[in-house]
Write a structure and sequence with these properties.
mainly beta, Porin, about 5% helix
Length: about 290
């Protein structure tokens, strides 16, 4: 299924949404202490929620600019999060995607809207920073997709992302730092040709958030990725460093909003001397996350 996407619409809608919500933020204070579960944008915190907690989350992710032409990709994911036992969280999700690709080298031109994937995410917290020097959580997300997240081609893909998340309050009740280490293998088959391929991405990310108001946190994230051909990290395809700001708003006792933007500050594709890798990664990435406890 396809539809016409107006030029520049996605970026404008995302920026307008962030500005609009920020303009009507409540003046009351809701936050006490740090709950790092959702305060970061592209990263994850070590907290997993309280037993019995249920939450709906809407996550919109935009990726813009490739090596020439016009490239815009928007992924809309809806998730249900449950905490059935202490330190253990389960998340079920499904996503839709929209693409506007024109004259990008190596890509077919596409304008389409599609149902993309389903996923399940398990997280277990092994260490709590209230009883240890830092918190540590292991997250395992498995997903099955029918649309390639980069080219928008019809595929059958299966991927897993293993993430180890650490965080610690560096200044009590004011600033918290987080570290993520991840490994993401993926298997992809092209139904039309029957060909199959494997790749893997490893990443290290660092984030720092500071409380500027009881209900507002401001900070940033730096993320470094290396993409390989083969799930065993056989041959390096490219690498990239993303840096950008993140803001977290506690809208009410039950609702929250996180907004983040990252730009590829440095990158290098294998076999190229260019200062950026715009083949394996995008120039800009943005994310807007809204959550509601019920």
């Amino acid at each position: 299924m396809s539809f016409e996407i107006k030029r520049g619409r996605w970026v404008g809608v995302l920026c307008a949404a962030i500005a609009g919500v920020a303009a009507v933020l409540p003046l009351g204070a809701y936050a006490e202490g740090f709950d790092t579960e959702h305060i970061f944008g592209f990263m994850i915190g070590s907290d997993v929620g309280d037993v019995g907690e249920r939450e709906f989350q809407s996550q919109s992710t935009g990726r813009f600019a490739k090596d020439g032409g016009r490239y815009r990709a928007l992924n809309q994911e809806m998730e249900l999060e449950l905490v059935p036992a202490p330190n253990f969280r389960v998340e079920l999700g499904t996503s839709f995607s929209a693409y506007d690709i024109n004259r990008v080298p190596g890509f077919d031109d596409r304008r389409q809207l599609s149902w993309q994937s389903v996923s399940v995410d398990f997280r277990y917290r092994f260490l709590d920073r209230e009883a240890a020097p830092f918190s540590m959580t292991v997250a395992l997300e498995t997903r099955a997709g029918r649309v390639d997240e980069t080219t928008a081609a019809a595929v059958r893909s299966y991927g897993t992302q293993l993430t180890v998340a650490f965080d610690r309050e560096v200044i009590p009740n004011f600033a918290v730092a987080a570290l993520n280490v991840s490994y993401e293998p993926e298997w992809t088959r092209m139904p039309r040709t029957g060909t199959a391929e494997q790749d893997a991405t490893i990443g290290v990310a660092f984030g720092l958030m500071a409380r500027v108001r009881p209900d507002i946190l401001i900070g940033g994230e730096a993320r470094y990725f290396r993409k390989y051909e083969g799930i065993g990290l056989d041959e390096l395809s490219g690498q990239a460093l993303f840096i950008g700001p993140t803001a977290y708003f506690q809208l009410s006792e039950r609702s929250r909003l996180t907004a983040t933007w990252s730009v590829q500050a440095w990158g290098q594709r294998a076999g190229s001397n260019a200062a950026l890798d715009l083949v394996n990664f995008e120039r800009h990435q943005a994310r807007l996350v809204y959550g509601l406890n019920f």
